[in-house]
Every structure is written in structure tokens, then in C-alpha cells.
Amino acid sequence: MALLKLKNLSVNYGAIQAVRGLDLEVHSGEVVTLIGANGAGKSTALRAISRLLKVREGSIYFEGREITAQAPDAVVRMGIAQSPEGRQVLARQSVLDNLELGAFVRKDRAGIKSDIAKMFQLFPRLEERKDQSAGTLSGGEQQMLAIARAMMSRPKLLMLDEPSLGLAPLIIREIFSIIRNLNAEGTTILLVEQNARLAMQHSHRTYVLEAGQITFTGPSQELLSDERVLHAYLGG
């Protein structure tokens, strides 16, 4: 059984039908990447899964349970967390405050404290800046905070929306190393990423989205050498 399943999903973004007839599955332990040009509907799909956008048609299933009509906070409680495009950290709040707010669905204070310590082990720079306002962090540090904040809800599925956006190459490599480590420790990841080649190199399977519809799907390593994908998305 798939951890996440989208069946014939259609979603409007304003007056535009941004996603149409989308079928997608993510299985436990996978990194699945969703690539496509700007405006293809990738972020819209993630926002629909998080229940931040209304579904026009189709269904969303998580652990075999339909969640299409659930509220966003209920989806987080079920085990889905998202690190949004543009980071969206709470700029005036401290790093520590941002992490604590990421655990808003939890009541286990000891567990929250333990997980904050774990995030500081994973992201040492965040510990160095724990009392600093999040808005004063560098772009890379804000991305680390956005991922750590999402992890504070102990998600079964972590959705990452454009984690490399606007970052220097050295920081991008660090972010993807963290993504690889999170997956190795058992976190299932659905990744939307503008850097298609990098995303496919770090994922098990890939879906290619064009104008809101899936045009290619398959094992990432196979699609990396597919002439059609190569010319359309990888600069080959």
C-alpha cells in the first residue's frame, strides 16, 4: 500500500486549472521527485496535499485513508509536513521559537525538547543561532530552519518545495546531503525541485509534470538517461 496516493487529482489556482488528472504514489522509505517547468503545477500539488488548496476533482489518500476533505492541521497530525517554497520562516521569532512552533500539534514536552536537540545535531548552525531572529539568517540557514521546523511534527511524509531556490552551489550540496541523511534515517520525502538533474540524482522515482499533467514517470536513474527527458529538462 502506498503511503501517499493521488488519484485523478485536479486543482485550480485562482481561475487556472493548475493540476489536472494527476495520479501519483509515494511509498514508505522513498524519495520521490516532481519536476517540471515553472508554472507546471508542482507547488499547487503540494499545497493541495497539505490541504491548503481546495481539490476540484479526485482524491488524496494517506496510509490508505482518504484525506481530501481534511483540514490542514489534521493533515499535519496524521503525519504530513511541508517545508514551503521561499522558506516562510517566522522572521521576527527566534530560531528556537520557529522550531517549537513546528511542533504545535504535539503535547509531549520531553519529546519536543529531545527533537530540538536532534535538529541542532543535524543543523549545528541553527544551534549557534538559536536565540537569533530567523529573519536575520542567511538564505541557506533559513532553508535549514524550514526543514527542521517541518521535522518537528515528526512527519511520516516530508514534502520539500524548491529547497535549493536562490542558494549558492555549496549550500545546495549541503541541503541535499541533509535530505539524503533524513531519508536514510527513515523519513519518506516528496521533493519538488527546479534543479531536475540534482533532484533525480537524489531520488528513487521521478514524475515529470507539464501543464498540470504527468508526461513521464519512472525510476530516476532510468529517466536521467531518457533522451526525451534529457533534452526537455536536463539540458542534454
Topology:
Elements: E1 4-13, E2 16-26, E3 31-35, H1 42-49, E4 55-62, E5 65-66, H2 72-78, E6 80-83, H3 95-102, H4 109-122, H5 124-128, H6 139-151, E7 157-161, H7 169-184, E8 188-192, H8 196-201, E9 205-210, E10 213-219, H9 220-223, H10 227-233
Parallel strand pairs: 3-8, 3-9, 6-7, 7-8
Antiparallel strand pairs: 1-2, 1-4, 4-5, 9-10
Helix pairs in contact: 3-6
Give the structure's gist in a few sentences.
The protein has 236 residues and is an alpha/beta fold. It is 37% helix and 27% strand.
Describe this structure in words.
The protein has 236 residues and is α/β, with parallel strands linked by helices. The chain has a single domain (4-91, 156-233), classed as P-loop containing nucleotide triphosphate hydrolases (Rossmann fold). Helix content is 37%, strand content 27%. It has ten helices and ten strands. The strands form two sheets. Strands 6-7-8-3-9-10 form a six-stranded mixed sheet, sandwiched between helices. It has a four-stranded antiparallel sheet with strand order 2-1-4-5, covered by helices on one side.
